[in-house]
Structures are given as C-alpha cells and as structure tokens.
Amino acid sequence: xxxxxxxxxxxxxxxxxxxxxxxxxxxxxxxxxxxxxxxxxxxxxxxxxxxxxxxxxxxxxxxxxxxxxxxxxxxxxxxxxxxxxxxxxxxxxxxxxxxxxxxxxxxxxxxxxxxxxxxxxxxxxxxxxxxxxxxxxxxxxxxxxxxxxxxxxxxxxxxxxxxxxxxxxxxxxxxxxxxxxxxxxxxxxxxxxxxxxxxxxxxxxxxxxxxxxxxxxxxxxxxxxxxxxxxxxxxxxxxxxxxxxxxxxxxxxxxxxxxxxxxxxxxxxxxxxxxxxxxxxxxxxxxxxxxxxxxxxxxxxxxxxxxxxxxxxxxxxxxxxxxxxxxxxxxxxxxxxxxxxxxxxxxxxxxxxxxxxxxxxxxxxxxxxxxxxxxxxxxxxxxxxxxxxxxxxxxxxxxxxxxxxxxxxxxxxxxxxxxxxxxxxxxxxxxxxxxxxxxxxxxxxxxxxxxxxxxxxxxxxxxxxxxxxxxxxxxxx
Length: 477
Hints:
The protein contains 17 helices and 19 strands. It is α/β, with parallel strands linked by helices.
C-alpha cells in the first residue's frame, strides 16, 4: 500500500505526527508559500542568502497557488512567462522545493528537453538552495538528479521520455523552457505527464520560459492562445490572465532593479530586433524574416579601396549540383573592414546541371593572378572540385561546415552589415541574392542562419559572402 492509498484516518495520524516532529525540529511549513520561500529558499546573490520576491511576483504567486474552500488548487496549470533575467527558473525552483516540503511523500518532477537542461537550471537552483541553507543541507539527501527530503518527498530532474514516464503520478510537474518543446516526443511527454484523476486539485503543472517562435512552439502557443489571447485579464496592473483552470503570467515589461535602460541598450546593439523582442519583451517571433534591410545593404555600398596583386584575398564558393546557381565571392580585409572584391555566378541550363569546368578554370585564373590565401567551400556539394584543386596544389581548400561554421558565420555577416563594416560596389547579382535571403533563428541554440525567402529564390552569393567574410576574419587578413 502506498501513501496515496492510506485511509483518511491513517493519513491524519501521519500528518499530525509529521507536524509535531517538524515543530520540534524548527521546520514548520507555513501555508503561505511566499513567506516560506522568502524565509527558507536561499540564493548566493544576497549577503544573507535570503530571496526577496518583487511585489508583482508575490501577487502572481499567491494567485497561482490559491486554493478553494475544499483545499484544492484553483488552477491545474500555471504558465509563468517572464522576460529574460526575470527569475523564472529560480521561482519555479522555489515553488517546487516549497511543495515538496509542504506535503509528505510527494513527488516533484523537473522536466526539460534533455537531462542536462532539466538538471542545469531549475533542479540546480533547488540543490543550491539546499546547500546554502544549513538546516536543509543537514536533512536532505542529494544523489545526482534526485533530492530526497526528510518527509519522504522526492524531487527528480528528468528528460523528455514519453515512453519511460507514462502514467506519472507526480504532485508537481515543472516544465522548463517550454518554448523549445516542439518535437513529437515533447508533445507526447506533455500528454503523458497530465494530472491523473486521483491527484486532480492537489497537483499542478508549472511551465516556465519566455515566448517562442510562431509555428514552432505548439504547446506554449496553445497555452498562450487559451489563457492570454482568449482568456480574461484578472489584474489591471499585472499581465495576469486566466481561462478556466489555466493561469498565465505573461510579463512583457522590465520590473526588476537590474533590468535597466543601459542593459537593454547594450542588448539591442547585439541582438536581431526579433530576438530582442522575444527574450527581452516576451513577444512571439517569426522564426524566419528578412536577413538584412535593403537600406543596411545600400549603406555599405561605396568606392572600393585600391588593391595590389599581393593583397590577400579569400575566395568562397557555394553551389548545388542542380537547381541553384554556382556562386563565387572574393573578399579582402582593409582597415578592419571586409571589402567585396570579386563576384561571379554561373547558372545551370534549364532542366540541366552546372558544368564545373568553367568555375574551376576561373578559380585557377584567380589563383594565378591574385594572392589567394585559401578557398572555402561546402564539403557536401564541392568535394569533387575541392579534391581536384587540392591534388593540383594550386590553392589551400578549406571545407566549411554547414552546421557550426555556418551558424556563426551568418550571424557575423549580419552584424557586420548592420555596423557598416562591409564595403561592396553594388554588384546587382550579389545585391539580389542578399535581398532574397531571410534569417531563421535556430530554436535549439538561438543562432541565426541565412535561408531562402522562397524556394525559387537564389541566395548562393549571399552564402558565399558569409563564408568568405568569416574565413577572412578567422585568418586575420
């Protein structure tokens, strides 16, 4: 027989016994979660390690954890969505630890995309609070991803695994960074970790994180549409919404002392506008939008500096076997600016494939006539041509990863154009390819990638520019 199956009188005896022991040990758990958190949940950032909640957080917390006359939670699902540095994960950790202390034999799960993410934020803050609190440190047992409390409650960090966690009977489920839950396994996990009938009213789902990408965050979008878009705002000052048994704090404004205008000015200078709005204003973002505004690109147009045949240059090539064009771009670094010195494009015949003999001959000519430091290329499509050039020893061929390298390179090119640290002469082919490009924010690691706006659009020269610019900086030409 489990604790959940004990008759009422046995549960009352056990509860009375626990309360007596808790009072004797000085660890009585108050019914006011806010007061308990401020008294017991420790953080390293303050001199006395006490965690002081902001007024808006206290009001939202008391509403989120409110119970009806029968002692059941008013809300079965709480969405705590706040801007970056709004202490979302810390508050989720504090609520989870309070809940585990407040109820004997309870189970709290912290769930994220993978075990590392689940353990590195919310669960980590719980362990840290225990280590900082001398009483908790003495009475709790921590074993990697599991925390055991003196009242037999358990807190565990788990990854998304719908088959392994089917039939959960947890008392509190904390879902971390729900904006990134987009795959089928994540949606099945959300379904499997639903509140069971025997825990209805006594168990809660708690989802924390900020806004995601339109069309790529199905669970969070559903909760947002239900509670925020179509729900009722229940506080004139707070952005607090409800719909049935779902409550959502969806804060979009800086409300904490460290969220200063100076901080946001710095962030605005380094983040794409859509990403700034998403993480610092909690606004939904299109995952793909125009790469750079045309006025940014036009502002980089100018007269090219004078070059000698000995000025170092990097050549980059981007092409597909069929369909797309063959793009070749050459750049140099002059006075800390990237200068586009060379642009060429070969288009495949209608319904045919590109003959690489012409681009190869042109690359060989460039190597003979200029100081080409290296040629970077997409190893997936250009392996054969690169092998030939390497065998001939005409130029150093540098393969360019379309995963890690590209993500970094595309973001660097975006920033360089925005800051007007690139000079081009207005070549119409390159301009068209740049303006054909969208930027897509990778939802897993929030990095930028150049993509086509439409399937028929050509962006090969833009991609080649991104690679050449990156390698020229890498080589410190």
